[in-house]
Every structure is written in C-alpha cells, then in structure tokens.
C-alpha cells in the first residue's frame, strides 16, 4: 500500500457492471487525491467468479487496469455473495475504516422504492457514520465512449512478426487487455487498451491488426 498524507479519511468506490463504473472510479480518485488518503474499489456479485460471462470479465479487467493506472490502493471483489448489498458494503467499511463512499444512483421506479425501499436509505442506515457521494448514472458518459461499443476482453498476439488481436484465449500472447470496437462497422476497427509495467497504453486496431510501430518499438515488442 502506498503512503498517504492522512489516514483519518479513506474512500470506497462501489462499482457495478456497465459503462458508468469508470466515472465512479475517477470521481473517487479525484476526492482521494484532494484528501491525500487511501482509495479502494469494491464490486459485489451474487455469482461466483467462474460464472462471469465475457462482458463481466471485461469489466473486471477494465477496473483492475484502472486501479493500476491510477495507483488505487486495492480492488476488492466480493463474489458468490447472498447477503444484502448494504450489509457487505458496511462490512468492508468497518474493516477498512472507510469514511466516504462513492456510489452510482440506480434507476428505480416509485413502485420498486415502495416495495423494496431505497438502496441509498438502506445504506445510510447500515453505515450512518460514513459520508455517501451519489453520482448520477443517467448523465451522458464521455463523448469518446459514444464512439465505441462496450469493451470486450482481447489478446495482443505476435503472429510471425505481425501484431493482431485475438478474442479467444490463444496459446501464447503478449498482452491481455480490452478492445473497444468502433460503432457502425463490421470490421474489427477500434482501440486496444492494456497495461504494461504499471502504465496504460492504447493502440489503434484496423481490421484486427495493429500498425502502431511507434508504440510497439517503445514497448520493445
């Protein structure tokens, strides 16, 4: 764990699968930077990790990449959980001495709120000593995100000196990362994002192939 200027504050970001999770993580990172305090990212799932589909696996990989890129203290995965979400969040808050929580505002109609109760109210009751930051998930994400489909897991492979992207796990690969496919195309055009020695890289992909010689030379591939 890296050192911080103060330990009387600590931030927990709760993320769920979908396009808004990066916004939540970056919001928590901004707060933690201002306070110079520890930052943690938490995901809670009722499924076990080996039951995650490719979309969920891509989200997990993306979160882990962000954690490395931003220097976040820890990513916490609570899988195969059958307890109420607010109970799990409260447990993590107690264990890590969390003082502030960042969550997304879930879409919930009036009938759901009457029958199930507001999750935010339930969370406030579970952790009354913690400040909660609610970030609207209905706002526009980033304009750049509107240019690409949802990220999927991919692998960068050296195919006899030609660098290309594979989506099925190959026998050998250079890097595992996320592929963001451009909207409105049948070709595998887009961006491949991956981590190398703690730094995040993005490489342009054209029809499944990579021609970014500058980045390839930089990484000594």
From TrEMBL:
PANTHER family linked: SENSOR PROTEIN KDPD
The species this protein was found in: Kurthia zopfii
GO cellular component terms attached to this protein's record: plasma membrane
InterPro entries, A to Z: Histidine_kinase_KdpD, Rossmann-like_a/b/a_fold
Protein name, entry field: Sensor protein KdpD
A GO term for molecular function: phosphorelay sensor kinase activity
SUPFAM superfamilies, per database record: Adenine nucleotide alpha hydrolases-like (SSF52402)
Gene3D superfamilies: HUPs
């Amino acid at each position: 764990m890296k050192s911080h200027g103060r330990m009387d504050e600590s931030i927990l970001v709760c993320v769920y699968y979908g396009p808004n999770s990066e916004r939540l993580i970056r919001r928590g990172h901004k707060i933690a930077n201002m306070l110079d305090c520890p930052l943690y990212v938490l995901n809670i799932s009722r499924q076990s990790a080996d039951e995650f589909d490719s979309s969920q696996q891509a989200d997990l990989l993306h979160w882990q990449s962000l954690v490395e890129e931003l220097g976040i203290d820890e990513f916490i995965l609570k899988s195969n959980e059958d307890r109420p979400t607010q109970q799990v969040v409260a447990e993590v808050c107690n264990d890590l001495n969390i003082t502030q929580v960042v969550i997304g505002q879930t879409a919930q109609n009036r009938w759901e709120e009457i029958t199930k109760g507001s999750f935010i109210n339930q969370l406030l009751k579970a952790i009354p000593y913690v400040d909660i930051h609610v970030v609207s998930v209905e706002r526009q994400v980033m304009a750049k995100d509107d240019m690409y489909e949802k990220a999927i897991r991919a692998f960068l492979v050296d195919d006899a000196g030609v660098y290309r992207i594979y989506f099925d796990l190959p026998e050998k690969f250079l890097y595992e990362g996320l592929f963001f496919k451009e909207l409105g195309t049948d070709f595998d055009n887009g961006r491949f994002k991956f981590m190398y020695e703690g730094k995040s890289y993005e490489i342009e992909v054209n029809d499944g192939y990579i021609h970014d010689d500058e980045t390839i030379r930089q990484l000594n591939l």
